[in-house]
Design brief:
By secondary structure, the chain is mainly alpha-helical. The chain contains four helices and no strands. The chain is globular and about 45 Å long.
């Protein structure tokens, strides 16, 4: 996925990939499991922060993705970057 041309959330990308696979196939089952894991992770992140802090975090994450897009940077592994960004964000007092 090239973030430069079109930014899609990880969830959206997984859903598109699921739709492209035959239901019941190994790949379909694997993608559904990956989507469920991703949704659980995002819910845990949201529930771990006060609403205002979560709003700030999601805005800053969106700004980070937008900046990368404007610079033409390709983000291969959004989950990896998200985890690193979240770790850095949580180091500072809110």
């Amino acid at each position: 996925m090239s973030v430069k041309k079109e930014h899609r959330s990880e969830e959206h990308t997984l859903m598109l990939r699921i739709e492209a696979e035959e239901e019941g196939s190994k790949e379909h089952t694997s993608l559904v499991a990956e989507l469920n894991t991703h949704q659980r992770k995002m819910k845990e992140v949201k529930n771990s922060m006060p609403p205002l802090v979560y709003d700030i975090f999601t805005k800053q994450w969106g700004d980070f993705i937008e900046t990368c897009t404007q610079r033409g940077e390709h983000i291969e592994d959004l989950d990896k970057y998200f985890d690193q960004y979240l770790q850095t964000f949580m180091k500072y007092p809110h």
